[in-house]
Amino acid sequence: MPVTPQLIESLRRILLGGNFRVFDYEWRRAIFHFREPNSELAYALKADGGGAQAIQMVVQARIIKHLLFARQSSSDGRTLHSLTEVGRREQDRALAAALSDSLWLAGQEVSATVTLVTEDYCVTPHLDYKLDTFTERLQLFTFSEKDAITNFILDHIQCFQEEGSHGVILFLYSLICSRTIERLREDLDSPTSYLLHLSPGSSVCRQALLNLLLTGRASPHLFNGTQHFGQDGLPLQHPLQGVLSRSDVGYLRWSREEMERGALPQVGSMLKTPRFPVWVCSINSSCSVLFSATRLLLSDWRAEHLFQLYYYSGQSSQTATARLTVDTHSHHWEASSRDGEADPEKRFPSLEMTIRTKWDGAAIDWNGTSPFY
C-alpha cells in the first residue's frame, strides 16, 4: 500500500513532534553497515554517533543473539571465535533476522509492516508540511507470518544497508507502522507524546523508543509492571507504564551525571535478566553492547561466580572485542590497584559501574585492555 497524507503526518508527530520537523543529516545518513566480513569484528555494525546510534546498537544486540544462539553452525556456535567466522551472506541473514525480530514483537507477534522507498511520490505535500523527499515515497508491505517478513527484508536488505538508503529511518518507520499509531498512543503516558527528543546537535531516542525496540511496547519507564500510586502513596491520575514482559535482549543503564544528581533510574528485572545473555548498555547517554557466549549465565547461579563478558562500543576506533572477566565472589573492588587515581573515571570506569548494576560488587578484570567507558 502507498503511504497516505494522514500516515505521514502521524509519523512526523509521533517521532519528532510536528510536521515542520525533519530528520537531521546524521539520521538521514544512518544505515546498518557491517565491519569487514570474516574479520575480528565481522559480527559488528558501525555506529559512530548521532541519535541513530541507539537504534543501531539494539539491532546489534539482536544480531549477536542470532549469531550466537539461533543460527545453525558447524561448531556449537557459542564462542567469540564463531563471531569472526561470519561472511557477507551470513551478515545479511543476521541483520534480516534482527530487524524482523523487533518488527514482529511490535506487531504483537500477529503481523508486521516493512516500509520501503519507491521511485514515485505517493502524496502531494501541502503548505503546513516540510518535504524530506523520501517519506513521501513510502510503500507499506504487511505480513502475517514472521518468516515472510524475514525473507522479504533479506530480499531487500540493500534498502537498509546502502549509502543514501536512509536505512535506520526506514526501519524506524517500519517499527511504528508495525506497532500502529493507535497502540503507540496507548503505550505512551501524557508527558511523553513523541519518541525522539530534540537535543543540541541531534534528535535522541527517548526511553519509550528503546523499550519499543527491546520489548515491542513503547513503555516510557524502566521498572517492572505498572505503577498506580505515587511516592506519597496516593493514586496517580495517570498510571505509569513500565515493562510488562521479559525481553529477548536486555538493557542496563549507568550515567555518572544522573548518579551524582541522585536521579539514576532503576532498571527492572524484566530488562536486567533477558532470555539471552546480551545487553544494550546506555552508558553516559551513549549506547553499546555487552554479551556472554554462555547462555547458562541467566539460568544457573553457579555460572555467575566467575565468567567472561564481551563488550562492543560501536565506535570505529574499537578494533577488537573487549573481554572482561567478572568475579562476583571477590570483595572490596573499590580498593583496587587504581586506588591512587584522582580521576573517578579511571578509578571506577563507567562500564564497570554499569556491570555492577546487574552484578553488585563484582570485581572486573579487563585482561590487558586499557579501560574505556
What keywords describe this structure?
13 helices, six-stranded mixed sheet, 373 residues, 12 strands, alpha+beta
Explain the overall architecture.
With 373 residues, the chain is of the alpha+beta class. The protein has one domain. The chain is 32% helix and 17% strand. It contains 13 helices and twelve strands. It has helices at 5-16, 25-29, 53-70, 88-106, 146-155, 158-161, 167-179, 181-187, 207-215, 256-261, 269-272, 344-347, 350-356, and strands at residues 112-117, 138-143, 196-199, 202-205, 226-229, 235-241, 250-254, 278-283, 286-291, 306-312, 322-327, 363-365. The strands form four sheets. Strands 7-8-9-10-11-12 form a six-stranded mixed β-sheet. A hairpin with a 2-residue loop joins strand 8 (278-283) and strand 9. Helix 3 crosses helix 4, helix 4 packs parallel to helix 7 (167-179) and helix 4 packs across helix 9. It is globular. It starts with a helix and ends in an 8-residue tail after the last strand. The model has no long low-confidence stretch (mean pLDDT 87).
Largest sheet: number of strands, sense, barrel closure: 6 strands, mixed
**Helix/strand order:** HHHHEEHHHHEEHEEEHHEEEEHHE
Overall helicity:
25-40%
- Overall domain count: 1
In short:
By secondary structure, this protein is α+β, with helices and mostly antiparallel strands.
Which secondary structure elements does this structure contain, and how are they paired or packed?
Elements: H1 5-16, H2 25-29, H3 53-70, H4 88-106, E1 112-117, E2 138-143, H5 146-155, H6 158-161, H7 167-179, H8 181-187, E3 196-199, E4 202-205, H9 207-215, E5 226-229, E6 235-241, E7 250-254, H10 256-261, H11 269-272, E8 278-283, E9 286-291, E10 306-312, E11 322-327, H12 344-347, H13 350-356, E12 363-365
Parallel strand pairs: 7-8
Antiparallel strand pairs: 1-2, 3-4, 5-6, 8-9, 9-10, 10-11, 11-12
GO molecular function, one term: K48-linked deubiquitinase activity
Catalytic activity: Thiol-dependent hydrolysis of ester, thioester, amide, peptide and isopeptide bonds formed by the C-terminal Gly of ubiquitin (a 76-residue protein attached to proteins as an intracellular targeting signal)
InterPro entries: MINDY-3/4_CD, MINY3/4
